[in-house]
Amino acid sequence: TTGGLAVNCANRTIYVTSTSNDAVYTLDDSTGAVTLVGPYGDAAVVMHGIEFDESTGTLYGMSSHNNGFYSINRSTGAATLIGAA
């Protein structure tokens, strides 16, 4: 289940978060193919929103399980808690 989308405009990468398997993917907008980047690293993390910050190159997410605000590694998918919102 798709929980959110974020776009890196500089390289046209579309990130997709899944709420059913707790991972982040990239989406090819020309073919519709998705590629697994990786799991968040904690099965309790359920990202219902993600956003890409063009100024820092950082992918962020919000998890509903703990109201946690996370940075997401764009190479591995690993989520690092920044703090609670």
Structure description:
There is one protein chain. With 85 residues, the protein is mainly β. It is 0% helix and 56% strand. The protein has strands at 2-8, 13-18, 23-27, 34-39, 47-53, 58-63, 68-72, 79-84. The strands form 2 sheets. Strands 1-2-3-4 form a 4-stranded antiparallel sheet, with no helix packed on it. It has a 4-stranded antiparallel sheet with strand order 5-6-7-8, with no helix packed on it. A hairpin with a 6-residue loop joins strand 3 and strand 4 (34-39). It is globular. The model has no long low-confidence stretch (mean pLDDT 93).
**What order do the SSEs take from the amino end to the carboxyl end, as H and E?**
EEEEEEEE
Query: Could you give the order of strands across the largest sheet?
Result: 1-2-3-4
How does the helix and strand content classify structurally? mainly beta
Cα gyration radius (Å): 12 Å
Strand tally, please? 8
State the share of residues found in helices, binned by percent: under 10%
Fraction of residues in β-strands: over 45%
Low-confidence runs = none
The whole-number mean of residue pLDDT values reads 93
End-to-end C-alpha gap: 23 Å
Please, how many helices?
Answer: 0
**Main pleated-sheet profile:** 4 strands, antiparallel
The gross shape turns out to be globular
